[in-house]
Structure to design on (211 residues):
């Protein structure tokens, strides 16, 4: 659809060319939408936003170099009223919270139906917050969960890297017995009894990324 004064001008940010082309084709056929530009990286997104000033930006999170959350923060720092809708495959607690804290007005997964995406774009354009039901459920669950301390989180990530208790102690300059105390607290908070279970739960919650 050609751009008119009433069109919602949309910029698509994703590092996959075919996905950008598919989204542009689908959205351009929706009444009142016009794709005004695309970007393949966070850096391009920041640069092109300055030039295009779109009404709504669809932002992927995982891209080479700086990620989508960094792009959201940079854009919002210069344009506090920028309306950004995250469109991603990733739904970990950490990804969701970081994106919304950075200033995203919505969070949608890439398996969303076209009608759901169109509604989300219109909601974000109207100044409303739009979060997919599955994402909202994760946020609600995260609020009710006991949060880890920074030291516990560091120990957890070292466990995920395959470090032994002794190696963790060396990394953090603490006694091995102190590492064991942190592990006891970690296991209690995560509701697990082994390192393997702790890593699995942490990965599902987005607390660690498995290599």
């Amino acid at each position: 659809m050609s751009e008119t004064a009433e069109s919602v001008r949309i910029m698509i940010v994703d590092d996959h060319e075919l996905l950008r082309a598919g989204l542009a084709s689908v959205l351009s056929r929706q009444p009142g939408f016009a794709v005004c530009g695309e970007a393949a990286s966070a850096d391009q997104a920041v640069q092109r936003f300055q030039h295009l000033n779109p009404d709504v930006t669809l932002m992927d999170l995982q891209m080479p170099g700086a990620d989508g959350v960094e792009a959201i923060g940079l854009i919002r720092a210069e344009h506090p009223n920028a309306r950004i809708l995250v469109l991603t495959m990733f739904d970990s607690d950490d990804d969701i919270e970081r994106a919304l804290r950075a200033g995203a007005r919505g969070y949608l997964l890439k398996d969303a139906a076209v009608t759901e995406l169109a509604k989300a774009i219109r909601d974000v354009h109207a100044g409303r917050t739009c979060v997919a039901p599955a994402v909202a459920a994760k946020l609600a669950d995260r609020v009710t969960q006991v949060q880890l301390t920074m030291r516990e989180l560091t120990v957890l990530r070292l466990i995920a890297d395959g470090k032994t208790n002794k190696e963790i102690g060396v990394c953090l300059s603490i006694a091995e017995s102190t590492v064991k105390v942190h592990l006891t607290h970690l296991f209690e908070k995560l509701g697990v009894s082994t390192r393997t279970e702790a890593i699995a739960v942490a990965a599902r919650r987005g607390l660690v990324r498995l290599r």
Summary: The chain has a mean pLDDT of 88.
